[in-house]
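Annotated sample (chain length 288).
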Amino acid sequence: MNLTKLNLTRHFVILGFALPLLTGCGSLPFLQAATPNNTIEETRSQDSNFTYNEYAEVLKTHVSQDGFVDYKGLQLNRQKLDRFNQSFALVSQETFDSWNDKEQIAFWINAYNAFTLQSIIDQNPLKGSIRDILGVWKVRRFKIVEDSKTLDNIEHQTLRPNYNEPRIHAAINCAAISCPILNNEPYTGEKLEEQLEEQTQRWINSPHGIQIDRENNKVAISAIFDWFGSDWEKDFAVEEGKFTGNGKQRATLNFISQYVSDGDREYLEAGEYDIRYLDYDWNLNIQK
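Output written by the structure step:
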């Protein structure tokens, strides 16, 4: 080999190592060796095998009936969660588009919750709150359906605008005490209606959903109804004279009233009380 060819070869070898480093810090957790196109196509062709089986085992093993998570145990035995989370990247856009709305909603909810679990156990030692993880919602990215998304992308740019389903707020879990509990089974298109109804019922009737103080004529509801109250206005808006507060508050109270006792529903509809939002407990939903 002459000197010119040798130098040229060295140039491309060095460039080959340098290219990944030029892709930006946001890509660092997902750097991979180059993959031939035919291998990529073969991998994508396997997306029909995407299942929630391993995720179901993770939830059954590490999440209690009341939604608390054994993060330490999951951290020590994370292989199934990691494999499941990696499998989101194998789902092609074509396959995703072939699913109905319920299947797509279940897919995004499971992705949000599974990526949140990963974000928690990636910290060593574990943080006391998800808010202590730098960039957890807006910076950390996860490969999914020929794209990469942050948790905020999934919740605010995908689930909320693309599906008129405010009950998702009872299903996506932010790993905090005040958050609606993490269901210990995956969501599926077939069972989605039943699962969302059950989750909403549990959330609303928990101390983190609504608190009614009839003696002092005060009602406190989850801060989630403050942050995302507009999601309920389209289908649950009511005129003044029923419930209380501004339009957003009346809509959310109308929604809430479907999940409480008849007596509480009548009390809420009468509107003779002051309304406020509950303080949010951001401490980690970890099993003690």
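Annotation: The beta strands are 142-144, 147-149, 210-213, 218-221, 274-277.
Annotation: The first strand starts at residue 142 and ends at 144.
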